[in-house]
UniProtKB/TrEMBL annotation:
Organism for this UniProt entry: Rhizobium acidisoli
Family named by the database record: Belongs to the bacterial solute-binding protein 2 family.
Domain named Periplasmic binding protein: residues: 30-296
Lineage: Bacteria, Pseudomonadati, Pseudomonadota, Alphaproteobacteria, Hyphomicrobiales
Domain of life the protein comes from: Bacteria
GO BP of this protein: L-arabinose transmembrane transport
Protein name: L-arabinose-binding periplasmic protein
Length: 326
């Protein structure tokens, strides 16, 4: 069922929609990126599980980081007659394009993980995290670890690596939040920060941090935070490759997707903790929000926030099952 004439209101804020005929099966499309990453594997599992529970037909497409493929998939879904679309945009810049396509087709759109805006600058309903606030939690944890290690007595040979996907505003919000909390605790670390661009993957982080370490041979201790676990674990792997002791590295991840790999061996690691988000909830919430609008005319919220759980070596064993560790 389409919502021609209603969607303009949807894309600029909550609105009412006509309920779908009870006899019709609702069909939804889900566009996501980096389908081989643990975060998105679990997210799609959550979306599929919720769709099955509520009787929704769900189409899913991994577009990796290809914005053109995301836009093409949007056209394909609309041609297939979907009643709504959830999208993890590979690049926020496609927001105006995909929202216009949804508006023209008369179907609701919800953004997951990365927020996007319509062509008139208004926000699209969004499922995800409060990036800045979550980043502050990472920064607070790093500050606590610095105190526990006694590093605050001498920062002379300490460097701070901010591993950044600079084209993704959601990612940068997380890094800015981490910096704000860390600098509030230790203002002197502002002069120690190095921005390290990467593409959200672990391989990219390893390469970028390895190059950065080579360019900063005076650094004897490193602090790392990033957009996701891949960024931090990649940074830690780079320090391991250079034979830097784990005790001289403090990295705190973001999303928990690499927890099994980071803590599973039980050996000391510079990857000290992570703020785990159960991405299955992101997928499920996105599907539920679209369903409630289409089926019951329940307006979508502007924002659906999800909360984190800290995972470290002390509670990893109790989290193995829910994390799906082998």
């Amino acid at each position: 069922m389409k919502f021609i004439g209603i969607l303009i209101g949807l894309l600029i804020g909550p609105c009412l929609a006509l309920p779908a005929n009870a006899a019709e099966t609702i069909k939804l499309g889900y566009i996501y990126k980096m389908g081989d990453a643990p975060w998105f594997v679990r997210e799609i599992e959550g979306a599929k599980k919720r769709a099955k529970e509520i009787g929704v037909e769900l189409l899913v497409q991994d577009v990796q980081t290809d914005s053109n493929l995301a836009v093409t998939t949007m056209d394909t879904y609309i041609g297939d007659g979907v009643d709504g679309i959830a999208i993890v945009a590979p690049d926020r810049a496609i927001g105006p394009v995909v929202t216009e396509k949804a508006r023209t087709a008369g179907i609701p759109l919800i953004a997951v993980d990365d927020d996007i805006k319509s062509d008139n600058g208004s926000v699209v309903p969004y499922v995800g995290i409060n990036g800045f606030d979550m980043g502050k939690r990472v920064g607070d944890e790093i500050a606590a670890l610095i105190r526990a290690e006694g590093w605050q007595s001498d920062f002379a040979n300490v460097k701070v690596g901010s591993v950044e996907d600079q084209k993704a505003d959601t990612c940068m919000q997380r890094n800015r939040g981490a910096q704000a909390a860390l600098f509030s605790a230790y203002p002197e670390l502002k002069e120690k920060v190095i921005s390290i661009p990467y593409d959200n993957s672990m391989v990219s982080a390893i390469d970028a941090v390895s190059t950065t370490m080579t360019a900063n041979p005076d650094a004897q201790k490193w602090v790392f935070f990033a957009c996701n676990d891949d960024g931090v674990l990649g940074a830690v792997r780079a320090t391991e490759n250079s034979a830097m002791p784990a005790a001289d590295v403090i990295g705190v991840g973001f999303d928990g997707s690499r927890s099994c790999e980071a803590f599973g061996s039980g050996t000391p690691s510079g990857f000290r903790a992570t703020m785990w988000i159960d991405s299955a909830n992101d997928g499920a919430i996105g599907i539920q929000a679209l369903y409630d609008l289409i089926k019951n005319a329940t307006p979508m919220k502007d924002i659906y926030y999800v909360d984190p759980t800290k995972i470290d070596a002390s509670n990893f064993d109790s989290m193995k099952q829910v994390l799906g560790c082998k």
